[in-house]
Amino acid sequence: MNQQPTSRYDSFSLFLHWSTAVVVTIAFILGPGGFGRLMRQGVDPATRSDIVWHESLGMLVLALTVLRLAWMALRPAAPQFQLSGWMHWSAKLVRIALWVLLFALPVTAFMALGSEGHPLTLLGGVRIDRMPFIAESRVAGLADWGDVHQFLGDAIMWLAGLHAIAAIFHHVVLKDGVLMAMLPRRKSR
Ligand code: HEM
Q1: Which of 1, 102, 129, 139 counts the most CB atoms within 10 A of its CB?
Q2: How many angstroms separate the alpha carbon of residue 63 from the centre of ligand 1?
């Protein structure tokens, strides 16, 4: 693998980053409001396209996140930027929080479904009716996992927004190439 200093991420890293951003945003928009009420009314979630799409896109985010983590261990050297003290630490903190949320969202969704006995319903008719290992676990009753999931869903959008504002600040004010590192290279004519 190439370990030379570089100013850009490789194209597969770009694909994983931007597809995650788009899919998380669509999953957030399709977040099934009133899920608990629908379940109490006996609605089968498989008949609700917002729920099926939300859960399928959420699972796709999980797959992209696992792939991204694996790719980080294998990919060519990533660009390195010298940032001042507080910028370095705040950027690092936001990045760690985004990683934690990308894993915590599916985990809390499974906790919500499993602890309340609702099925996981995905595109293509994929369905898991029961998750006994969650329902019977001690953590199932520790929280309203649907509320926790909803809170984390809002939090990831706020943090992603902050992350995007910081990237624009780097581009417009600091002009240091941080944003360009995550954009596709323009074809030279
Ligand atoms: C990218 C990741 C995800 C984001 C940003 C996200 C975001 C959200 C948000 C904001 C809500 C609340 C919607 C509202 O009340 O208006 C929600 C609810 C829900 N999400 Fe997700 N979600 C993600 C992944 C998942 C996954 C992977 C699943 C299933 C495996 C899932 C299943 C659910 C369910 C069942 C609810 C309803 C929870 C309840 O009210 O009890 N989500 N999600």
Answers
A1: 102
A2: 16
- Find out whether the beta carbon of 145 lies less than 6 Å from any atom of ligand 1: no
Give yes or no for a contact between 31 and 78, defined as CB atoms under 8 angstroms apart: no
Nearest CA owner, ligand 1 atom 24: 58
Asked if the model's pLDDT at residue 144 lies above 70, the reply is: yes
Q: Which residues pair with 121 in a beta bridge?
A: 127
Taking the C-alpha atoms of residue 99 and residue 94, their distance in angstroms, rounded to an integer, is 9
Of 43, 52, 54, the residue with max ligand 1 atoms within 8 A of its CB, to mutate for a pocket test, comes to 54
pLDDT tens digits for range 33-60: 999 999 999 999 999 999 999 999 999 9
